[in-house]
Design goal:
single chain, 308 residues, mainly alpha, two-stranded antiparallel ribbon, globular, binds Phenylacetyl coenzyme A
């Protein structure tokens, strides 16, 4: 049987564009992944936004403000890219607020000290970059193009976080302890961001065949660990994993067992901040209703003028 145009394009590594024919499963897979990705960017503003008023200097406050605004921008590109698949922004928000759509587990952990802001930039954005660089080559055109722009901004975010952690690690004993404590709390949740092991990742096979995902969860996780451990060692911090050891044969770090029970609890709504994150989103969304109404009224008025 001859290949469909869709299959041909996938085989030739060409991009699928919004008006191209695509299997229903491909479309719905993308809607799920891209909307979850967009929600992660938006909910991800909360743990860091929490520290804008408490940043220790004007410089750090300006940088953090810019970073949090970038995350809002990433969410908006991704919502727009997802709308090209035939779902509305309203539907996506409803799915987030009713728990039908997920967002990254990592954003259900609290930010207890300023060092946590460093750990988020260094580890969470660091993990996001590894995943998103690979997604630049995803088969869906609008998603791939959004990733290219987003990755440029994410590298600035990673540096912002590593700078905070380096400063604390070189500071007083108490500051070094703050940096170590943040690493202790954020290391394992960051490793979990890549999702279940390949053997338990139900979505991976199709996603890899359709070239939506270009690398598996485990291979991305390994590459994040290999990159990040030397960064911790360089500044005298200890990664909280007694089984972590460089393996000469594989040229990778071996690492300890991930607590999957904790991961699934957080994914299924029982993390420390799940409830708070969604409540906050609902409140902000309701308070912004007048802005949405005003924007629609303004564009309708302009449209009516043109028609008349
Ligand atoms: N959290 O079969 P798989 C950022 C779910 S970056 C929650 O392996 P898949 C930047 C998964 O949805 C963070 N749920 O699934 C930033 C599936 O459930 P479902 C966002 C998770 O899709 C930094 C089930 O488990 N990045 O925000 C997680 O092939 C700082 C089975 O899993 C992206 O979303 C998790 N960690 O692989 C912003 C990247 N992991 O839907 C602010 C795009 C898995 O069947 C501040 N997404 N699940 O009910 C992806 O690459 C993939 O979707 C994975 C999951 C890798 C997340």
């Amino acid at each position: 049987m001859p290949n469909s145009i869709f299959e041909d394009k996938i085989n030739k590594d060409l991009k699928i564009e919004p008006r191209d024919e695509m299997p229903d499963g491909y479309r719905s897979h993308l809607i799920r992944q891209m909307s979850q990705h967009a929600h992660s960017e938006i909910i991800g503003m909360q743990p860091e936004g929490n520290w804008i008023t408490r940043a220790p200097s004007l410089r750090s406050k300006m940088i953090l403000l810019a970073k949090v605004q970038d995350e809002a921008g990433h969410g908006l590109y991704l919502y727009s890219a997802c709308e090209t698949l035939g779902i509305t922004r309203k539907q996506m928000i409803e799915e987030l607020q009713t728990g039908k759509a997920k967002y990254s587990s990592i954003f259900n952990y609290p930010t207890l000290t300023w060092a946590d802001i460093g750990a988020i930039g260094w580890l969470v954005d660091g993990a996001a970059i590894v995943n998103q660089v690979s997604l630049q080559k995803t088969s869906y055109g609008p998603y791939s193009r959004a990733m290219i722009k987003i990755c440029k901004e994410e590298s600035f975010h990673q540096r912002q976080g590593y700078e905070i952690i380096c400063t604390l690690a070189k500071g007083t004993d108490e500051q070094k302890q703050m940096a170590q404590d943040a690493l202790n709390r954020w290391w394992w949740p960051s490793i979990m961001m890549f999702g279940p092991h390949d053997k338990d990742s139900n979505r991976s096979e199709k996603a890899l065949n359709w070239k939506i995902k270009r690398e598996s969860n485990d291979s991305l996780r390994q590459s994040f660990i290999d990159k990040t451990v030397p960064q911790a060692e360089l500044i005298g911090l200890k990664v909280p994993d007694d089984k972590l050891i460089w393996n000469e044969k594989t040229n990778h770090y071996d690492f300890g067992d991930i607590d999957w029970e904790e991961f699934w609890n957080v994914v299924n709504g029982k993390g420390l901040c799940n409830k708070e994150r969604i409540e906050h989103h609902k409140k902000a969304h309701n308070e912004g209703e007048w802005v949405r109404k005003a924007a629609v009224a303004y564009s309708e008025k302009k449209l009516n003028k043109k028609v008349a």
